[in-house]
Amino acid sequence: MTTHHQMPADHPNEHLTPFAHRASNRCFGCGPANPSGLHLEFQLATDLSVVCLAQVNDHFEGHPGYLHGGVIATLLDEAMSKSVRARNALAMTRELKVEYLRPVPSCAPIRIEGRIVKHEGRKFWAEAAILDEHRIRLAHSTGIFIEIKPKAS
Question: Which residues are catalytic?
Fold first, then answer.
């Protein structure tokens, strides 16, 4: 089940490059190997922030026409996590604070952005936002992520 459609960046001077994932990745947010996941595709900006241009389908609604609050939190968490990964670190969410500013429509173009605001040792402080097609902020989050050692395979 595909939940997004790639859209062109709406700023021609924005230099975004694909942020690749392993084909076996089963992450609910970005994993191509998870049939029930969101299949988000992030791109990396030159400042190491991340961007995802998406349309999340109505399978993830709460109220008709709008995404469920838990899915909104997932989108924001995923963007912050990817911003940590952009710095070659693997980290898990320790704390997540979400501000639901306006309803996020399902099946509509959205832009998800994430960035690191502070890094100290194994701790990363990040923020993310969901914007509509007119760049109006619909949701915002802050989080703390703790770097972990990769699991031995």
Answer: 77
State how far the Cα of 36 lies from the Cα of 98, in Å rounded to an integer.
Answer: 24
23 pLDDT more than 70 = no
Q: 55 to each of 7, 60, 86, how far by Cα in Å?
A: 9, 11, 23
- Out of 3.10.129.10, 3.40.190.10, 1.10.760.10, 3.40.50.2300, select the CATH number for domain 16-147: 3.10.129.10
- Alpha-carbon distance of 53 to 112, in angstroms, equals 6
Task: Give phi and psi for 73, each to the nearest 5.
Answer: -60, -40
Strands (E), the chain: 16-18, 43-45, 50-54, 91-100, 110-120, 123-132, 137-147
Give the domain ranges of the chain: 16-147
In angstroms, rounded to a whole number, what is the distance separating the alpha carbons of residues 94 and 100? 20
> What pLDDT is attached to residue 10?
47
- pTM score: 0.86
**Could you tell me whether strands 137-147 and 110-120 are parallel, antiparallel, or unpaired per DSSP bridges?**
unpaired
